[in-house]
Amino acid sequence: MLDDFISDQAIAYKIFKNSIIKNKLSHAYLINTNGYHKGFDFAKAFAKYLLCPNNETGSHECSVCHLIDNNSYSEFKVIEADGLWIKKEQTDELQEMFSMKSLSGRKVYIINGVENLNISASNSILKFLEEPEEGIVAILITDNIYKVLGTIVSRCQVINLNNVQVKSDDMLLNVGNQLYNDSDKINEFVNDSESINKIGHVIDFIEYLYSNKLDTLVYINKYWNDFFKGKDDYLFAFNIMIMFYSDVINYKMGKDIILSEFKSNIEKFSELDYNIINKILNLILEVREDLYSNVNLNLLMDKFIIKMEVI
Ligand SMILES: [Zn+2]
After folding, report:
1. Rounded distance from Cα 1 to ligand 1 centre (Å)
2. Which pLDDT tens digit goes with each residue over 173-184?
3. How far away, in angstroms, is 2 Cα from ligand 1 center?
4. 164 band by pLDDT with thresholds 50, 70 and 90
C-alpha cells in the first residue's frame, strides 16, 4: 500500500498524498524512477489508493483491490512493452476500454516504460494526454527521463524518485549512460576530453544564474553563448541541469550522486527547499521541451532566465 513508501520515497509520497487530500489530482504523472527498483509497485499502490473504495482504512482486502491485483478491474489498465516496443494496438485497446463510462468516476492507467512507446503509439497517447477526460488519471513510468519524448514530459507532472544507482566510479561513464542509449555515443562522450569542461560550463552557468538572476542576461555571452551554440548543445546543457538538480535532491536524501566530481557545487545547493528544487526542475523541463519546436535559441534563454527570476 501507499504508506509502505513513506520512508523510501518521502517526497514523492507527500506529493501524491497531498494531491489526494487537497483534491488537486493531476491528470497525468510521469514517475522518473532513477533506477528505484520498486517504481512500478509504488505506481500501483498509488493507483490502488485512487481506486479503492476503502482507501482510508488501508486494508486493501476489498474486491476492487483483488481485481486490480489480478489485472481484471475494468477501471484500471497496465501497459508495458510487448517485445521491444509498446505498440499502437495496446494504446488503442486502452482507449477503447476507457471510452466506456466509469462506474466509480475514476479510471487509472499505468504505462510502464513509457520510453518504449513506438511512434504511432506515442502519437495516440499524446492525443489522449492532450485532451484529458474527467476522472482519468495517467501514471507513466520511466527509468530514464532523458529518453522520454519532450512532448510527453511536458504534459505530465514529473515525480522524481530518489535512488540513483551509480555503478561506476567513472563520472563521465555514468553521465554518458544517462544521456545516451547507444554505446558508440557513450564511448565518444567518455573519450572526448572536452566533455568534462562542457559539464563544468553548465554548472558555472547554473551557479551564476542562481546568484545573479536577471543580471545573467547581461553576461549571457560569457556564461552561455561562448560554449553552447546549437540545439544539440542546448539539449545537452539542459539535460545536465536536470541531472544537477536531481543530484541536489539525491544529496539531500543521502543518496549517491551522478555528478560526483561536482559534489561541492551540489552541496551548496542542498540548502534549497525541496519545493523550490522541484519548481526549478519543472521549469528546466518546460524550457527543454521548447527545443523540440522551431524556437529562436536566444529568446529561449531569455525566457528561461526571466522565469528563473520568479521562482
Ligand atoms: Zn480496496
Report:
1. 10
2. 999 988 886 778
3. 12
4. low
CA of 67 to the centre of ligand 1 (A): 9
Ligand 1 centre distance from Cα of residue 68 (Å): 9
The residue segments making up the domain with residue 49 are 2-160
pTM of the predicted model as reported, rounded to 2 decimal places:
0.71
**Which residue matches cell numbers 515525480?**
159
308 with 205: CB under 8 angstroms? no
Angle, in degrees to the nearest 10, between helices 231-252 and 171-179: 120
**Can you give the pLDDT at residue 60?**
61
Burial class (CB in 10 A: 0-12, 13-18, 19+), 282: middle
Give residue 67's pLDDT: 92
* d(CA 217, ligand 1 centre) in Å: 54
Contacts for 241 with CB less than 8 Å, ≥ 6 apart? 202, 206, 284
Q: Are 53 and 175 contained in the same domain?
A: no
Among residues 160, 184, 212, which one ends one of the domains? 160
* Cα dihedral 163/142/184/171 (nearest 10): -20
Q: Ligand 1 center to residue 76 CA distance, Å?
A: 13
Per the CB < 8 A criterion, the answer to whether 156 and 140 are in contact is: yes
165 lies in a domain?
no
56 CA distance to ligand 1 middle (Å): 9
